[in-house]
Design goal:
The chain is α+β, with helices and mostly antiparallel strands. The protein folds into 2 domains: 114 residues, Uridine Diphospho-n-acetylenolpyruvylglucosamine Reductase, domain 3; 112 residues, Enolase-like, domain 1. Helices cover 37% and strands 27% of the residues. The strands form 4 sheets. Strands 4-5-10-6-7 form a 5-stranded antiparallel beta sheet. It has a 4-stranded antiparallel beta sheet with strand order 11-12-13-14. A 3-stranded parallel beta sheet has the order 1-3-2, covered by helices on one side. Helix 11 runs antiparallel to helix 12. The termini are far apart.
């Protein structure tokens, strides 16, 4: 049986306490909440933290609320709460799309949005969802907080902008009129990692696309943010031909690797088709919001 390397364990009871503990333990400490991503890596000894700081008691980081023109989500919010949130489903239905195809109920009951984003796995759905939604994240330290655009949060495979002594505390989603969104995924079996997945958010005004967000999972070393495809869409009328063109850009701009889930050409094809489908559904939802 595979077992982790030895580590110390501390359970935090407040955000301030967790940050103080991380400061004291230094860069070899890791935060743990659901643990569904970190613990398997520890068992394989791909991750060898000297200490784990358990933040499951930090209920102050469990919330989904509307505030200051944003949807704000605490980093300890569980997948199941994202899945069931009517507030999120009304403004960003791609969250429910994604949560319906993430893993299984035991994982969704324990796993958190903060853990998913901080794992920085290119195959993870919520990173693409938040990237497409133009999210910002709040990173907390003992000296204060800083706000980072989601586009700058993932700095490499399994690497984020969260530094030693810091905790991802909150995710912020901008609320704009005329928004619609969707998430599309192809997987080998229910709950599996994606072969490819696409998230799309469109904000529309009078039938024209005023802003767009598109991101891909599982077709590169990190989440792929399709800025070129987004630029193609801005200011244009939503139409199947336009979305097909954006799909071609998505196929060209992703960087898949061959593995047991499929060859490069197959994954590029999926990236294009799923982008087109996600954009079509996002546009339909945006039009419904305008009506």
């Amino acid at each position: 049986m595979q077992t982790p390397a030895p580590f110390d364990y501390e359970r935090a009871t407040s955000l301030d306490g967790a940050l103080a503990t991380l400061d004291r333990l230094g860069s070899d400490a890791r935060v743990i909440a659901g643990g569904h991503s970190l613990l398997p890596m520890m068992k394989l000894r791909l991750a060898k933290p000297a200490a784990l700081v358990d933040i499951n008691e930090l209920h102050e980081l469990e919330y989904i609320r509307e505030q200051a023109g944003q949807i704000r989500i605490g980093a300890l919010t569980r997948h199941v709460d994202l899945q069931k949130s009517d507030l999120l489903a009304r403004h960003f239905p791609l969250f429910r799309d994604a949560e319906n195809v993430i893993a299984d109920p035991p994982v969704r009951n324990r796993g958190t949005i903060g853990g998913s984003l901080c794992q920085a796995d290119a195959a993870e759905d919520l990173s693409a969802v938040c990237s497409a939604a133009k999210a910002q994240v709040v990173i907390q330290a003992t000296g204060g907080a800083r706000v980072v655009d989601m586009a700058d949060f993932h700095v490499g495979p399994y690497t984020t902008a969260v530094a030693a002594g810091e905790i991802l505390a909150e995710i912020r989603l901008p609320l704009r009129p005329g928004g619609g969104s969707a998430h599309e995924k192809v997987e080998r079996r229910a709950g599996d990692w994606a072969i490819a997945a696409a998230s799309a958010v469109l904000w529309m005004d009078g039938g024209r696309i005023s802003e767009a967000g598109i991101a891909l999972s599982s077709v590169g070393l990190t989440t792929i943010h399709l800025s070129r495809a987004e630029g193609l869409l801005r200011g244009k009328e939503a139409a199947p031909e336009l979305f097909a063109e954006a799909g071609e850009v998505a196929s060209a701009d992703c960087s898949p690797m061959p593995d047991g889930r499929g060859a490069v050409d197959y994954k590029r094809h999926l990236a294009g088709v799923l982008t087109m489908r996600a954009l079509s559904r996002a546009a339909a939802r945006a039009i419904d919001q305008e009506a």
